[in-house]
Design a protein that fits this description.
Number of helices: 3
Distance between the termini: 73 Å
Helix content: over 70%
Strand content: under 5%
Structural class: mainly alpha
Radius of gyration: 33 Å
Number of strands: 0
Largest sheet: none
Length: 125
């Protein structure tokens, strides 16, 4: 423990310690504010990406639903017309569409992340 030599030195040490404390408090407050700002920006980016992906998936599934609906209308028409060739090719198209994975474009997450990070990327739906 340090031995105090004079009351003035003791007062100076207390003032210096208090000043250092206030400096640290301000630095830590600034760090917390920076972290909070970073958090807000990061959460906004996550929400924007989530919204985009949800929109993409909704669009993709809407398109698939329309394709299935159109193909089943062709099946109905082929049955009504007694056109077995059209019926067979349409059923084959339905099977192929059912086999296709709507997530195949999202399979490579690194590619998706790079595309999301690129503001000039053109998304084809």
């Amino acid at each position: 423990m340090e031995v105090f030599t004079s009351p003035v030195q003791c007062l100076n040490d207390v003032v210096q310690a208090w000043t250092e404390y206030l400096t640290v408090v301000e630095e830590e407050k600034t760090k917390r504010q920076n972290i909070e700002a970073w958090e807000k920006v990061t959460l906004a980016e996550i929400r924007a990406r989530r919204d985009f992906l949800i929109g993409y998936l909704e669009s993709s599934f809407d398109e698939r639903a329309k394709n299935f609906q159109s193909l089943f209308q062709k099946v109905d028409q082929a049955i009504s017309d007694g056109d077995n060739q059209m019926l067979g090719s349409t059923l084959e198209a339905i099977v192929e569409l059912a086999k296709s994975n709507p997530f195949k474009d999202l399979a490579d997450l690194s590619t998706v992340k790079a595309a999301l990070d690129n503001p000039d990327h053109v998304w084809e739906l």
